[in-house]
Amino acid sequence: MHIGLDSAFERARRMIGTTTHRRLGAVRAAESVAFARASAERDPRFLDSGRDDFRVHPMYLPSMLRGPDGADSDEYRPDGMFVDEVPGTAGLDVRLLAGGQTIEFCSTPPLGEHIEVTRTVCGVDRKGRDGHEFLVITVSKTYRVMGSLTLAVVTERFIVR
Asked: Does residue 119 contact residue 141 with C-beta atoms inside 8 Å?
């Protein structure tokens, strides 16, 4: 393994079980519609907030990584990811890849309600062999209306090379 992977492994291992909290702001129709359009959605219920049956796109919620105003420039890695998105990798010369995601939708996100997410580091595993090692870091995120209703539970895996 190279130094960055060894450091990421040790850092992530020490973080297992730790939970962080982030306030993401209010669910707004404009951002949900923009997300639906960008993801090539065709169902008009997700594209026209003036409809009586308008709904927030179900995948919009897990895409909320920061609040609607985004982040400051110092919160981004050179590759465009947030410096704290993959536990244990901040400041290291490693490559990050999405390694899969499972989502349990619990309730429809209500417009105007403020959302919070809690993230727990679940594990880190070494994979590969013969000079082709990589890490898989697993995190769980729970999206809620501030202090109450659970909206979605997301398990994400990140590949670190």
From this structure: yes
In tens, the pLDDT along 53-112 reads 999 998 998 888 766 666 777 877 877 777 778 999 988 889 899 999 999 999 988 899
User: Measured between alpha carbons, how far is residue 100 from residues 55, 91, 154 in Å?
Assistant: 26, 23, 10
- Give the CATH number of domain 3-160: 3.10.129.10
Greatest alpha-carbon span in the chain: 58
What three-state secondary structure class fits 132?
coil
Which pLDDT does position 109 carry in this prediction? Answer: 87
Q: Is 5 exposed, middle or buried (0-12, 13-18, 19+ CB in 10 A)?
A: buried
Query: Taking Cα atoms as reference points, which of 44, 81, 78 lies closest to residue 66?
Result: 81
Copy the structure tokens of residue 43. 């169902």
Query: Which positions ≥6 away from 34 have C-beta within 8 Å?
Result: none
| Per-residue pLDDT tens over the stretch 136-147 | 999 999 999 998
